[in-house]
Amino acid sequence: MAVISGERATSRAWNHDIAYHGVVRRAVPASARDLLDVGCGRGRLARALATARPGRRVLGLDPSREMIDAARAANQGIPGLEFAEGEFLDLDIPPESFDFVSFVASLHHMEQAMALTKAAEILRPGGRLVVIGLARATTVPEKVVSAVLTPVAWFNDLRPDFDGTRDAPVVEPLPGWHETADMAHATLPHSHYRRRLYFRYSLRWAKPRA
């Protein structure tokens, strides 16, 4: 897995994950001060979250030392931004430590229900969780929809700013759309699940206030 330079890491590159960074950023509560990006890779999203509003403290977490080294090299001197190496499910994080938690193309690398449960526990009341996850079509109707949307995805892959490098290997087989949605709704009642392009889905959940 190649470590890219700091210049490349902070460029206006585009890929299937970066395409949804705006969805994540717009979901952050204005009052959020402590944010966690799980599976931060090279730190693009963590940097955007940290620089969007003064006073934020953003922690980018990734199990890969290579990715953390690249993230630190590319984002030196950003106030409130830190990176740490570690497996999310293995870390001892005190309850109600964060106002916002995000997973972008990282949840499917873990036991998903356990990861969502832990994310809910470490959120403060009123905090928000956003997932941009990967799933696949497993039913006939889903496969028909995927076939219709595939040309759109291929067209966007021709963009001159397309960055096809991956921060982590893709797990195969990906979970199915219905399987993922059912798991999310069972784990986080009142969560909002939406299927999106590029085999992605978004999941949003707000922790009830006491």
UniProtKB/TrEMBL annotation:
Residue ranges occupied by any Methyltransferase type domain in the UniProt entry: 36-131
Full protein name: Class I SAM-dependent methyltransferase
GO biological process assignments: methylation
Gene Ontology molecular functions: S-adenosylmethionine-dependent methyltransferase activity
Pfam families, A to Z: Methyltransf_11 (PF08241)
Transmembrane residue ranges: none
Entry keywords, A to Z: Methyltransferase, Transferase
Xref: SUPFAM superfamilies: S-adenosyl-L-methionine-dependent methyltransferases (SSF53335)
Source organism (scientific name): Actinospica acidithermotolerans
Xref: CDD domains: AdoMet_MTases
